[in-house]
Amino acid sequence: MATPHPAAWPSDDSFGPFLPGHGDLTLVFENIVLAILPAALVLLLTPLCLRRAFRDRGSCSIAWTFYVEIVLVSGCFATELLATDIWGASSYVPRYASKASALMCLAAVCMGAVLVLGRIRGHWPALPSLYAATTALFDLVRMRSYILRNMGVMAAVCLATTLIKALFVTFGRISYQLQSRSALLRSHSILDWVIVTLTLGFKNTIDLQHLPELDPQSRSEVLLPQLQAHWAKSEGKHENFQ
């Protein structure tokens, strides 16, 4: 995968300054907040889910949708593994990108473990569906960033991952509906709250006027004269040095 051409970048002003190359703060932010943090949270919660499944046993009933979910989790793992391999072979690797892909691979493994053990032990853990629904929206954001940087391969991988996770959530709801009405209600309430909350960011634009003022002394009208005086002083020193 070639290094993205800087000419494709001016349309992306979603976060941070423009620093073509490895100083791309937008991708750093997205890799940490939209990939590493959700995956790390799944890794932390997986032992708790597995412990609960080992400790308590309910009535086990496996529907046909369970096998579809297993295939979809495997597909999610495959796409994340492909992303890790692409970053490893690429001449341009944004900071934390390879770590984010590796952690998301582990998160996909945890999804499968929680899903399989939970269903076999008669539990209906919400963690896999919750993680899939949340990160599917995050993957759309990352896909946009890759498209703006002419990184079509990574954008295609993100799109494939998003579709797989959307199908996983859909078949998960079908499984709940077929087997457990109480689990269906819990899943609906949690997923609906998460999806509605996250989609607020897609429907609304937060501008500077929406943010509270941190300090009156930090306003641009106050800082600009101070900065101009500092710049003039620095230019004078530079001229004297020459």
What best-fitting shape do the alpha-carbon axes yield?
elongated
Uncertain regions: pLDDT < 50 for 5+ in a row? 1-10, 12-22
Nearest-angstrom radius of gyration? Answer: 23 Å
N-to-C span? 45 Å
Count of structural domains: 2
Mean pLDDT: 76
* Strand fraction: under 5%
Order of helices and strands: HHHHHHH
Keywords: Membrane, Transmembrane, Transmembrane helix
What does this protein structure show overall?
The structure is a single chain. This protein is mainly α and 242 residues long. The chain has 2 domains: 11-205, no CATH class; 217-241. The protein has helices spanning 25-55, 64-89, 97-120, 127-148, 152-179, 181-203, 220-241. The longest helix has 31 residues, at 25-55. The radius of gyration is 23 Å and the shape is elongated. The chain starts with 24 loop residues before the first helix and ends with a helix. Keywords: Membrane, Transmembrane, Transmembrane helix.
